[in-house]
Amino acid sequence: MANTKKKRGNRGISRRDFIKGTAAVGVAAAVGSIGFPNVLRGAAPPEIQIGNILPLSGPLAYLGNQLKNGAVMAVNEINKAGGIRSLGGAKLKLLDADSEGKADLSISGVERLDRAGAVAIMGCLQSAVTIVATQVAEKYRVPFVVSVAVADKITERGFKYTFRLQPRAAQMAPQTVKFISDIARQAGEKVKTIAYIHDNTAFGGSLSGLVVETAPKYGMEVVARVPYSPRSADVTTEVRKIKAAGADIVMASGYFSDGVRVFRAMKGLRVRPKAFVGCGNGAYSDQNFVKELGDMTEYVMDGNYQANPNSPLAQKMFDHYQALYGQKIPPSAVFAYEPVYVIADALERAKSTDREVLRNALARTNLKKHVLPQGPIVFDATGQNKNAQIALTQVLGGKIRVVWPEQYAEAKLVFPMPS
Prior knowledge:
This protein is of the alpha/beta class. It has 13 helices and 14 strands. Helix content is 39%, strand content 16%. The strands form three sheets. The chain has a seven-stranded mixed sheet with strand order 7-6-8-9-10-13-14, sandwiched between helices. It has a five-stranded parallel sheet with strand order 2-1-3-4-5, with helices on both faces. A two-stranded antiparallel ribbon has the order 11-12. The relative contact order is 0.14.
């Protein structure tokens, strides 16, 4: 695609601009000069292809397809509203690549999406897969916007083409510990000990390690740190270690299926802390966790990436997802939805589909209108969203509600759990 030498403004478009639609944009003039010079006057501009690498099959297909749903919904919203106006109303097209949850398949996935002409790529859910995929994207100079993957290493390698919206581990884990301290102080409760059970991948390992480092700053100590294989059908041995620790708080990180399995085992063995608190837990913030396990999930908390329930934009997103898929949008889908808008905003400002121009536009992102519980989306020099913030949720009356920080809360938290 052709580059442009026109001066690009620094102000990004808002989702409201997309939703309003695009009347009389001047398609022929735009197409003839800024990004699609070979399109005939009055002809529709080519589609803009965005790659999306996710585990659409295999053990994590449940979560992978949630992310795909969020991305597809965002693409359709943008296209229905008129597409990328500065590029003559060009429409977005999502190109899928199935990682099957395997890092090596992400290599061929990036290569295939590169050959297909994707202007940017999103993905990949798992940190180990994302670490590899972003390395390959860097080689081919393809902008890569991470949807879900928490490992700090992803944005610590000096890459120019990697950007991440969600809180990284070094944001997510300390924020979760701080929120535990805040709510305990507000409730007048002493919380001194934490027992942590987590999957043995880079995901759980990085989060639990940071909680170990952070807890003493808030007068707490991790007295047990127990890893398990997410493929293990029986976690009884590991859960017994958590029970034996007798900690005030039991923290857990994992994906959906193993998160359900571990929690069921903890309740079966009568583990009774003051609170169960997830940290980026793939089960605890998913309404299907409640649906599958019922009343035993009441009062479970999770420090996780979330949408801001008090945002009108987020409410529209909630309603649209509910109408399409018959359930509340899960956090993973939120962070596949918002990156599409970030890429669209960058394309709008870039006025070009040239990858280098788009990369530079992404680096200058300052998106104030979004669905997240934070200030503007702004990437630091490493490509990390420097304002990224988690929210603490709790299952109340069978519904997952944001309860902390108070400025984003939609319900009053209950702490400690009633016995």
